Amino acid sequence: MPTTCAPGCTQRHSKSSDVRFFRIPKDEERRKKWIILMKRMQADNPNRLWEPSYHDRICSLHFISSKYNLILH
Ligand SMILES: [Zn+2]
């Protein structure tokens, strides 16, 4: 199964790209922060914020810094 990012993100995991994927934090507060900062809506329900499941990843394009706990953009 390919690694994918949030709805609407076109990045897919490939060995030739520099894009890295980060796991969603297990910590509830950081997780919520990521979700809010991502501002992604659910693919099948555009009125609701996307909620990643624990196997989802967010790609490095959404981070200002490679330090993955810094702010997303
Ligand atoms: Zn992405």
TrEMBL record:
<keyword id="KW-0862">Zinc</keyword>
<keyword id="KW-0131">Cell cycle</keyword>
<comment type="similarity">
    <text>Belongs to the THAP1 family.</text>
</comment>
<comment type="function">
    <text>DNA-binding transcription regulator that regulates endothelial cell proliferation and G1/S cell-cycle progression. Specifically binds the 5'-[AT]NTNN[GT]GGCA[AGT]-3' core DNA sequence and acts by modulating expression of pRB-E2F cell-cycle target genes.</text>
</comment>
<dbReference type="Pfam" id="PF05485">
    <property type="entry name" value="THAP"/>
</dbReference>
<keyword id="KW-0805">Transcription regulation</keyword>
<dbReference type="GO" id="GO:0008270">
    <property type="term" value="F:zinc ion binding"/>
</dbReference>
<keyword id="KW-0539">Nucleus</keyword>
<keyword id="KW-0863">Zinc-finger</keyword>
<dbReference type="InterPro" id="IPR026516">
    <property type="entry name" value="THAP1/10"/>
</dbReference>
<keyword id="KW-0479">Metal-binding</keyword>
<dbReference type="GO" id="GO:0001935">
    <property type="term" value="P:endothelial cell proliferation"/>
</dbReference>
<keyword id="KW-0238">DNA-binding</keyword>
<dbReference type="GO" id="GO:0003700">
    <property type="term" value="F:DNA-binding transcription factor activity"/>
</dbReference>
<keyword id="KW-0175">Coiled coil</keyword>
<dbReference type="InterPro" id="IPR038441">
    <property type="entry name" value="THAP_Znf_sf"/>
</dbReference>
<protein>
    <recommendedName>
        <fullName>THAP domain-containing protein 1</fullName>
    </recommendedName>
</protein>
<keyword id="KW-0804">Transcription</keyword>
<feature type="domain" description="THAP-type">
    <location>
        <begin position="1"/>
        <end position="73"/>
    </location>
</feature>
<dbReference type="InterPro" id="IPR006612">
    <property type="entry name" value="THAP_Znf"/>
</dbReference>
<dbReference type="GO" id="GO:0005654">
    <property type="term" value="C:nucleoplasm"/>
</dbReference>
<dbReference type="GO" id="GO:0043565">
    <property type="term" value="F:sequence-specific DNA binding"/>
</dbReference>
